[in-house]
Amino acid sequence: MNEKHLIQKYFSRKLDDESIIEGIGDDAAIVSTNSDCELVITTDTMSEGNHFSKQAPAFAVGYKLMASNLSDAAAMGATPRWATLNITLDKLNESWLEQFSNGLHECAEAHNVMLIGGDTTKGSCLNASIQLIAEVPIGKAMLRSGAHGGDKIYVTGVIGNAFNALEFLQENDFNHRKLSDTQFSALYMPESRIDLALELREIANAAIDISDGLLHELELMCSASHTGAILYVDDIPINDDIDFSKAIIGGEDYELLFSAPAEFAEEINNLSKKHNCLISCIGEMTNNTIIELYHGSKVIPYPKYTGYDHFAP
Ligand code: ADP
Ligand code: MG
């Protein structure tokens, strides 16, 4: 099998969408964009040994790579449209490629995302990146920097499920067969928050996804918005099997953290029901620049941690 056949067999699918002028096959893809929208562009990489283990099922790797990019689009309140895939393979393993591309396409198709191009190379380690291009009506994107003092802080889903699964794998020699279905889904097939996000963009002042840990992402939002925050830790829905501080520090949950004026509480409650997605109010933004954690009416110590850093010594 040569490179051209590989691309044809595993990555090129029929693209039935009027936005696509040229898909896979020419030197570059051509798409036509909506004139009333801005483009929102994000990219995420997964490399073996860093983001996934050798034992991880290829389907799961492909699915999660797409899902992590979708989560960034959701955090911006954008509709994902087109993707490109850059993949570096250390060897030609067709069953791996087949499963990987099935996972990637399954996630893409479920969200109407079209794979329109990429690059395929050989290298010393297995590495894959997706670039996702999304659209948002002009001026409507949710930014990290838009929060105001007095906003309520919300989070979607239950926190710590993915980290719990990751920890379980670490304790079990990465034997993926031991994962429960719930753990597997939490770690590799996170539910998309896109549909919810497209409605949230009308009411939220700021949003971020919490893939690097809830507390760390809140810090980023506060710093971008020049706000502080009060977190009511008892109101954060966390996985019971995991220690509280691990849940709010450990990442991998592709959930949304957002802030919105208090007057939208009921609308947010309705969106939660409509999208069948738990949304919890976990605190509020303040006008200073400190983050305080409250357990009941008592301030509790701020957990000591350093966010994940690929280049930490
Ligand atoms: P070039 O040499 O002009 O860069 P390539 O041989 O790299 O062309 O790619 C041929 C076509 O296949 C292009 O349309 C490119 O976007 C697409 N392509 C290459 N690798 C991938 C991939 N992994 N996934 C999707 N499309 C790909
Ligand atoms: Mg190329």
What attributes does this structure have?
single chain, 313 residues, alpha+beta, seven-stranded mixed β-sheet, 9 helices, 13 strands, globular, binds adenosine-5'-diphosphate, binds magnesium ion
- In this structure, how is the largest beta sheet organized? 7 strands, mixed
Question: How would you write the strand order of the largest sheet?
Answer: 8-10-7-11-9-12-13
Class inferred from helices and paired strands: alpha+beta
Strand content: 25-35%
The total beta strand count reads 13
Calculate the terminal CA-CA distance, rounded to whole Å. Answer: 41 Å
Secondary structure: helix percent: 25-40%
Q: What would you report as the Rg, rounded to the nearest angstrom?
A: 20 Å
> What is the average of the pLDDT values?
96
Number of helices: 9
- What are the low-pLDDT stretches, counting only 5+ consecutive residues below 50? none
What series of H and E elements makes up the topology? HEEEHEHEEEHHHEHEHEHEEE
What small-molecule ligands were found? Answer: adenosine-5'-diphosphate, magnesium ion
Shape, please? globular
